[in-house]
Design a protein that fits this description.
With 762 residues, the chain is an all-alpha fold. The chain has helices at residues 5-33, 52-64, 84-105, 114-128, 142-160, 176-194, 220-246, 269-275, 277-298, 308-312, 316-319, 322-353, 360-386, 394-399, 410-437, 443-458, 470-503, 509-527, 544-554, 556-573, 581-606, 608-614, 618-647, 656-690, 693-696, 699-702, 705-712, 715-735, 754-758, and strands at 40-42, 48-51, 72-73, 76-77, 137-139, 400-403, 406-408. It is built from 29 helices and 7 strands.
């Protein structure tokens, strides 16, 4: 079966419209079905305990002071601290038992016999496992009022006064009132996690978290759709392989073609400007991995770093709390990868077209300068906002918006959005000779579509404010985070790889277009709606369970094909004399880690029944590191290697340092994920299943001897990753002195591949 590019393009448009319809309807239902914030919560005597304003103020405190990068809410966030939803539910259950033990028996709960405890447990469970009547006022029992007040006291002591044993700095939340508001917000999420929806037999969160004392247990749909997902994977994999084998796609080959040697390709001014993105990104990369080492050690010494505080009397926790260090760690990871991709996207067009628009190099430098301003401003604003130095609305406009992956203030996010738009304009200028000659589904257009989709999805991050319901906030946040990772970024990966193959003369432009479009169809057809597996436990309607089960299962398929293609390409490139083996080593590594991290580990933790117990544990940490650094990071580094090899005199090209970094990164990541992170995650899964989710996220779990040993076992892997990055940065420093001069008056003939690409009209 032969598919034309036009046919594939029509199917892509149909898939896009389907995605738009499903997710558009989901957005409407998100507002309709989100857990209500009651106007007020009253006690048994009718006295107001909490108002809607205080709950919203608590959400603002949660964001401003970076609590999502300390612990998590509804399972989303960092894993260093407790999950606030699960912990407040556990505390509420405990304090209600304490109240009823005293009221019924005049004794402490721990001193009751088995029968008396069972009666108290049943009273608490029955009271918590009730339905919401749909009204604007929630009435507390005396036991709930008592529990609410105790939780407030606990959170003031911990998050305002500080608790170094838990890794909480003094004054993490600036005022006691702010800590009380945060407790009210966390308790509200606990309330809708144990309270059934009107006319339903399950809570707003589909009974998450697992808390048997509060009556929360996995629903039948979680089991049913987990089984269906596994059956679907087997069937869909067979059907997809049959389709893939039946579609005639050209294989890359090094036979009978002329691969341009690095020395035969001239470097234009805009490409020299694009190369400047590399050292900036490398500096961000080094800072990120150093912070990663600190974060890993914080799980062992909650307030110190290898005993430094005992020597100098300085708690690093007070200078650089876990929450700020993790915020920087995440944002720097996104920024260095994005910066590298931006540079690559501006480096490749002249290679393909031999076209150098007037003052393109100047505009590329302007984009780089704007990126530096946004990075410095955003990182500084995070620290200022979290430490209370930005008054009023400035804390989330210029400071720390405090939502994982979307931490920088809104003004800096606008700057990033403007940067994406400027990049698109520059890419259009550079690719104009191709854009003018090819149809709208051509390869150059695909690059712009991939970059444009990244920009478009980022707009979803502007659909909420600190006062927006947390369930709706999470709905939009995952539009950005998941659809970037499983949609736009994957699209960009296959487009960049296709463009690179064309620039090496290993595929014709039209052949690459067809391959990219087919894989983009698979990515778009699964990854966009696949975001719905993030909606199972955050207060969204339960119909997302079957939808998320189906599409998150299918997300594995395009990753298999990307890996298959990468390995096939590398085999073809391994012919004697092929000059670009090292860049393709990175591309193959990216495909392997994409399959392992996003594919295998992602599929495993996204089965509903497993995700119910696993959500927000170290298994997610393993998935995230293998997917983010392994897939997207290695692709960025492969593009860096290719750009450098073209930009350095072949007689002075030395790949030994980069090859050393390559193996340090791969071995280090494997050790970190498989020796330390995943074993901790499986231990957490066991505790969550046999005890409760709150127990699996408790300080007591992290302080177990075996868990601490596994945390120490992460040291070799982290050290190799840091060493590889340090070698990489040092290599870039020395390469700055051997870069070739750029052409002053570029023309098509200066590019070894451009004339054939522009003229590829077959």
């Amino acid at each position: 079966m032969r598919l034309t590019r036009k046919t594939i393009a029509k199917v892509i448009v149909a898939a896009f419209l389907l995605n738009l319809a499903v997710m558009g309807a989901g957005a409407w239902f998100a507002y309709q079905e989100a857990p209500p914030i009651p106007d007020e919560v009253v006690g048994p005597d009718g006295e107001t305990v909490v108002t809607a304003t205080e709950v919203q103020d608590g959400k603002a405190a949660f964001q401003q002071y970076g609590l999502m990068n300390h612990g998590s809410i509804l399972g989303n966030g960092a894993y260093y601290g407790e999950d606030y939803t699960a912990e407040t539910l556990a505390l509420k259950t405990r304090y209600m038992r304490e109240y009823y033990a005293d009221a019924e028996y005049g004794a402490a709960y721990e001193s009751l016999d088995a029968g008396e405890r069972s009666r108290v447990d049943a009273l608490v469970r029955e009271e918590l496992d009730a339905s919401h009547d749909g009204g604007d006022v929630v009435e507390y029992s005396a036991a709930e009022l008592y529990a609410h007040e105790r939780v407030r006291e606990t959170y003031v002591e911990r998050y305002h006064e500080g608790d170094h044993d838990r890794g909480v700095p003094v004054g993490m939340i600036e005022s006691a009132e702010g800590a009380e508001d945060f407790a009210d917000f966390a308790l509200w999420t606990a309330w809708f996690s144990h309270t059934d929806r009107p006319n339903a037999d399950h809570s707003y969160t589909n009974e998450w978290p697992y808390a048997p004392g509060a009556g929360n247990d996995a629903t039948g749909s979680a089991m049913i759709w987990s089984v269906i997902a596994m059956v679907l994977l087997v069937g869909a994999a067979g059907a997809a392989i049959l389709l893939y084998k039946s579609v005639k796609l050209p294989e890359p080959s090094a036979e009978g073609i002329s691969v341009p040697e690095p020395g035969d390709v001239s470097v234009f001014p805009s490409q020299r400007a694009a190369l400047r993105f590399i050292p900036i990104a490398a500096g961000l990369f080094l800072a990120q991995v150093l912070l990663g080492g600190l974060l890993a050690h914080f799980y062992i010494e909650r307030a110190g770093f290898f005993g430094i505080e005992r020597i100098f009397g300085i708690h690093i926790l007070q200078l650089l709390p876990f929450s700020i260090a993790k915020t920087w760690h995440i944002d720097l990871g996104i920024l260095w990868i994005a910066s590298t991709w931006l540079g690559a996207g501006l480096f490749l067009p002249p290679l393909l077209t031999g076209h150098e628009p007037k003052r393109q190099g100047t505009y590329v430098s302007v984009l780089l300068g704007a990126l530096v301003v946004v990075v410095v401003g955003g990182m500084g604003g995070i620290w200022l906002g979290a430490n209370g130095y930005l008054p009023g609305e400035l804390w989330w406009l210029l400071g720390n918006e405090g939502l994982e992956y979307l931490e920088v203030g809104k003004v800096w996010q606008v700057g990033l959005l403007a940067g994406f738009v400027l990049w698109a304009v520059l890419a259009i200028r550079g690719l104009k000779p191709l854009l003018d000659r090819e149809p709208i589904y051509g390869l150059a257009h695909m690059i712009l579509y991939a970059g444009g989709s990244i920009t478009l999805l980022f707009v979803a991050g502007f659909m909420f404010t600190p006062s927006t319901n947390i369930a709706v906030t999470e709905f939009w946040r995952w539009w950005v985070v998941h659809m970037w990772v499983e949609g736009a970024f994957e699209f960009f990966i296959v487009a960049i790889i296709g463009l690179t193959l064309v620039s090496m003369n290993l595929l014709s432009r039209r052949s690459a277009e067809k391959a990219v479009m087919l894989q983009a169809l698979l990515v778009m057809g699964t990854g966009v709606i696949g975001v719905s597996h993030h909606y199972w436990w955050i207060g969204m309607p339960d119909y997302w369970v079957p939808i998320g089960s189906v599409f998150s299962t299918l997300e594995l398929l395009p990753l298999i094909f990307i890996l298959y293609e990468a390995i096939g390409q590398y085999r073809a490139m391994s012919e004697t004399g092929f000059p670009y083996k090292l860049p393709f080593m990175f591309i193959v590594a990216s495909g392997v880690w994409n399959f392992v991290g996003a594919g295998v580990l992602g599929f495993f933790i996204n089965l509903p029944l497993i995700n119910y117990y696993e959500h927000g544990t170290y298994l997610t940490v393993g998935h995230a590191h293998a997917a983010m650094f392994g897939a997207f990071g290695f692709l960025a580094l492969g593009m860096v290697t290719y750009m450098l090899q073209l930009s350095i005199d072949p007689d002075r090209w030395d790949a030994s340092w980069l090859r050393a970094s390559f193996w340090c990164w791969n071995v280090g990541l494997a050790l970190m994920v498989f020796v330390s992170v995943l074993p901790v995650g499986f231990l957490q899964l066991d505790v969550a299943f046999t005890e409760s989710y709150a127990a699996a996220r408790s300080l007591g779990f992290y302080e177990r001897d075996l868990v601490q040993t596994l945390f120490w076992a992460r040291l070799p892997g982290d050290t190799l990753i840091i060493a590889g990055t340090a070698i990489y940065v040092a290599d870039l420093i020395r390469r700055r002195f051997v870069l070739r001069a750029s052409e002053d008056d570029p023309a098509v003939e200066d590019m070894a591949v451009a004339e054939g690409i522009v003229g590829d009209d077959d």
